[in-house]
Amino acid sequence: MRKHFRRFAQFTALSSLVLLSACGGAQSSGEKDANGAGKVTADIGVISYISGPGAAYGEAITNGLKLANEEINKKGEVEINLVIEDSAGKQDQALTAAQKLMNSKNVTAIIGPTLSTEMNVVGPEADLNGVPIMGTSTTAEGIPQIGEYVFRNSLPEALAIPASIDKAIEKYDAKKVAILYGNDDVFTKSGFDTMKKAAEEKGLEILTIETFQKGQSDYNAQLTKIKSLKPDLILASALYNEGAVIMDQARKMGIDVPFVGGNGFNSPEVIKIAGDAANGLIVATPWYGDKDDQKVQDFVKKYEEKYGKKPDQFAAQAYDALYILAEALKNAGDADRDAVRDALAETKDFQGILGSFSFDKDGDVVMEPTVLVIDEGKFTVFE
Ligand code: 1QQ
User: Fold this and answer.
1) pLDDT recorded at residue 34
2) Pseudo-torsion of CA 183, 184, 185, 186, nearest 10°?
3) In terms of Cα–Cα distance, which of 101, 134, 162 is closest to 363?
4) What is the C-alpha separation between 144 and 137, in angstroms, rounded?
5) What is the structure's pLDDT at 365?
6) How far is the CA of 154 from the centre of ligand 1 (A)?
7) Owning domain of residue 259
8) Residues 6 or more apart from 215 whose CB is under 8 A from it?
9) What are the beta bridge partners of residue 44?
10) Run of H or E residues at 274
11) Could you tell me whether strands 281-285 and 370-375 are parallel, antiparallel, or unpaired per DSSP bridges?
12) Residue 211's beta-bridge partner residues?
């Protein structure tokens, strides 16, 4: 079967595998009615970045999941109970949460974790234990390739970044770029690789490549160098906290060129933190809340009523993800982990709020992004 050849590369702790095997492997079951047609009932584990500096990602994700959960349960074909765990954006905490969920007999599948950095340790573990896992925000290269139980419905950076760069070149006739990226995170590093590759393929001159680390507060050295080189664009691979601070400091230094960011930058938090300094940020997204589409508008309305704010990309992806999983549970006809994995892999032309969704042969996403720019403090379509 696909991906089995990758298993030799999975180097995570065997001890937890042994522990899980000793528990006999967990399965939950569907409740059939007298006609055998009844609804499938399942616990779905969620690992999310709910506390710490990136907590707005986890808040949006869990909000989207809870809204979808209410709607799905109301329809009555599938009954999902969400079991939510906080990873705080940390690998070890994400792994502990995953082990707890996988050890629970009733957990059929896991949604999350939020960061690719976390999925890189949790994904191999879930795969070894035969627990289907689906990231809703993990966008680095290679996530679904971790194993056949590992999926995502998030727009990979490999699709998002080239789309943004193309638009920026077209609009600004850009020829020279500076690149800035976080070198201590799987997602920001992968985003950098994609940016560099895309810039080279599109014939852009890369003036400099600068790095930073999570939690850094002073970018003076990097930005002073970038300013002196006069790029037409700055390509920045960052999570929202660092990204917003970088833009704020750049604008204060008089750097007024557009920024191209990846998925991590596509958060209202960037505008909240950086204010006017966020104007000129270009991102590609699978989600656009002002889309003239009934399904999208219904979701936005319900979300705003429930949570008092507009949904972002992370909420929308999580919302669709639970529907995709609910559909797989229904098609599997049972809350069995293997059956649900197989049903998930078969997902094709699912019509969600992100548009039509299918997995490719690796369990990766086939999707067309929309390119947005922050203009006057608001994400708008970049024409
Ligand atoms: C990743 C991401 C982040 C932006 C998720 C919040 O895309 O870690 O893959």
Assistant:
1) 45
2) 70
3) 134
4) 12
5) 87
6) 9
7) 158-285
8) 53, 241, 242
9) 82, 109
10) helix 268-274
11) antiparallel
12) 181
> Which of 285, 317, 341 represents a domain boundary (last residue)?
285
263: CA distance to ligand 1 center in Å?
6
* Per-residue pLDDT at 329: 98
Question: Ligand 1 centre and the CA of 95: distance in Å?
Answer: 17
Spacing, Cα 28 to ligand 1 middle (Å)? 30
- Identify the pLDDT of residue 364: 83
Total count of domains within the chain: 2
Tokens (6 digits) for 41: 């009932």
pLDDT attached to residue 368:
82
**Residue of the CA atom closest to atom 9 of ligand 1:** 138
Q: At 301, which CATH number?
A: 3.40.50.2300
Output the ligand 1 site: residues, CB below 6 A: 57, 114-116, 137-140, 187, 239, 263-264
Token pair belonging to 244:
């917003």
pLDDT in tens, 96-145: 999 999 999 899 999 999 999 999 999 999 999 999 999 999 999 999 99
Whether 377 is covered by a domain: the verdict is no
Question: Does 281 share its domain with 306?
Answer: no
Written as six digits, the tokens of 139 are: 């966008």
Give the number of the atom of ligand 1 that is nearest the alpha carbon of residue 115: 8
Tens-digit pLDDT profile for residues 24-58: 333 444 455 444 457 899 999 999 999 999 999 99
What the block records as the tokens of 40 is 């499938």
From CA 369, how far away is CA 383, in angstroms rounded? 13
Task: Say yes or no: 163 and 279 in one domain.
Answer: yes
Residue 342 inside a domain? The answer is: yes
Which of 338, 288, 317 shows the shortest CA–CA distance to 156?
317
- State the average pLDDT for the chain: 91
Which among 236, 256, 285 is the end of a domain?
285
Task: Indicate the SS3 state at residue 102.
Answer: helix
With a cut of 50, list the residues of the chain below it in pLDDT.
1-30, 33-36
The residue type at 139: T
